[in-house]
């Protein structure tokens, strides 16, 4: 515990639900030292909680935001059924020593008359950007707004949303934002399934089939290590694993140079295999670095 913390860890969580309350509390947090921000849409799992841990290691104070951002969901996507569990989330965050949760209402974030959005560039175009038009415009807009409302020193994101981390870094660079972006490793279940709030949608059979994502990614790693460096061959093998053993509907399998969204034809430097599939009605993404 830092010298600035007050009360036992389990009792010190503050829930703030309006921008006015956030402003009132912010100068006190600021006086304690560096502030770490963990933006989330709630339905928290161990992946989110490890972002909290990273923030607590790096900063005196950790603030988690919980806001299901409608502008990053396309028509027909899962905005309405996205899992919401504020009480459960607060219990998990309290146990993990978070100082403050900012869980604003929709109208407090997007006030009546809101009409400005962040126009994202080529980094947002392929993969998720192509499959979910407008998604990254919504992500960049809400992340910029959260950085303005809760001006922290560092913000923590998970590498599972690989392309999202690149979009956010690009925005921070282009808009000269004074915040450090920390990207934390993917957290997996024991059987390899990447943790995601959307895993809650999977029934038993789909949960089994979803293991094909990790199997496909591991297959790419093994083939690459065995000398198969041709990206088309690797992508075809991953796709086969997803379609045959996972009975998944593949949206994309792409191999990009690590730290970019540029596709490679040959894996002769560190690269990232990125995949998006539908298992039943559930859309899942995952990625894995190979060739390093
Ligand atoms: O990764 C997420 O949960 C969301 O895209 C984020 C960054 C919280 C913005 O709504």
Task: Provide an overview of this structure.
It is a single chain. The chain has 292 residues and is of the alpha/beta class. The protein has two domains: 14-184, Rossmann fold; 197-290, Pantoate--beta-alanine Ligase, Chain: A,domain 2. It has helices at residues 19-32, 46-58, 86-95, 106-109, 128-131, 135-149, 162-174, 204-209, 211-225, 231-245; strands at 14-16, 35-40, 61-66, 100-102, 154-158, 180-184, 249-257, 271-279, 282-290. The strands form two sheets. It has a six-stranded parallel beta sheet, with helices on both faces. Strand 5, helix 7 (162-174) and strand 6 (180-184) form a beta-alpha-beta unit. The relative contact order is 0.13. The structure holds pantoate (PAF).
Describe this protein with a few key phrases.
binds pantoate, Rossmann fold, 2 domains, alpha/beta, 292 residues, 37% helix, Pantoate--beta-alanine Ligase, Chain: A,domain 2
